[in-house]
Amino acid sequence: MFYVFNSQEERREFGGSAFIEIQFCKMPSDSKIKKIIANGMKNWRDDSLYIYVDDIDTFFNEYSSFFACGTYNNSKSGILDIFGTNYYKPDLIDNIAAMILESKPTDYEILIEWLYKAKNFNGFYILGI
Fold this sequence. Notes:
By secondary structure, the chain is of the alpha+beta class.
């Protein structure tokens, strides 16, 4: 369900732009939340995880409850928005990972490994389709 591409050309050949992207937030840790949610993301990074359009329903059904704590680009929080921007602060990562490890949904090992890497950044984004 989770894909990593060595280049954006490889991603485009696989499925064009029909993906949800899970991306590291590379903004400085002292950045204000408004700046992080307004312009911290840059689509189509090579170190992102991607979920192809054919897997979105499975991803949402199996994972959305773990990601119900993100911040939208309007500064509100709520359920996972698969059509918008969701930002997750670094201090949420351990709890999210623990819930995923307990439930063991489809391909969870790939996501867990990626989340542990996200701890080296200022959290992460889930960028909707």
